[in-house]
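Lab channel / #folding
Pinned by the channel admin:
"Please post every new chain as: sequence first, then the structure tokens as a reply. Keep commentary short and put observations after the output so the thread stays searchable."

First post following the new format, from NK:
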Amino acid sequence: MATSSQAKPITLNDQTTVNYSRARRTLNRFLRHRVAVVGLVVLIAIVLFVTLGALWYSEADANYNDTKRSLLAPNAEFPLGTDTIGRNILARIIYGGQISMLIGVTAVTVSVLVGTTIGVFSGYFGGVVDSLLMRFTEAMLSIPSLLLLLVMAKFFSGRIPQQEFLGRTFSGSVIVIVVIIGLTSWMYLARIVRSAVLSIRETEYVMAAQALGATHRRIILAHILPNTLAPVIVAATLGVASAILSEAYISFLGVGVQPPTATWGNLLEGSRRYIDDAPWLWIFPGLMIVLTVMSINFVGDGLRDALDPRSDKKI
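Reply from TO:
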């Protein structure tokens, strides 16, 4: 006599296995992207350079000046040479890299928080909320971001005193640049998140949650946000490179991070009058910016392909 079979319930171990398999497939797709792997290796090397380099040079070494040794070419004592007032370029690149990367990561954190919030609310609630938020986003997009960045950086420059954090002294302009870059770079992310939410809110599991009386907060936190993480992660990764470049732009023009705090951008600013006579002033910080931005972009491309479940092509 035949017996009816019952479906086996999904256990916590089964769900863990599914999540592990999905993560492994994502990792495999990323590792097949050879350029992204190279970019990741270069990025890790740069991060180790600017962090472990602090074990050899102190912040005082980076800021110490002696005009008797100004504009020395690279030599055994100063592997990357010295600047116009005798500061060690290698030490300043190490500490400048810490600030440039800190600005990139924190500015993108601000951008992701603002852009994700606006995108989720706009896509989920729709109607008047969507119209108002998207018109505001389009208005922000119509303003040239670099021009807005320059104007706001110039206006707020010098208005915030120096800050002490983890034993480091930061120019107040660092906070200004982080906030300005973060608040002027969220618009594209907001539109990406809104597009994702518009499709997610029509799925069966979201409609089932609504039918069961789940609150908007629970639906957003439990169902909407987790399914928008992939585009947010990719946009955030690429945004770090964009933020580092933006800081370099305005610091090169003299309205970015102010001395004594070093960044790769204001190291370039001090080399404008010595492009031919002292090329080491711009070659080394410029090379660090190029390598960092390119490696982050390569990693972002790899993450975009790896996080796309439809991407099973060999790279």
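NK: Residues 77-306 form a domain with the MetI-like fold fold (CATH 1.10.3720.10).
TO: also worth noting, The chain has 13 helices and two strands.
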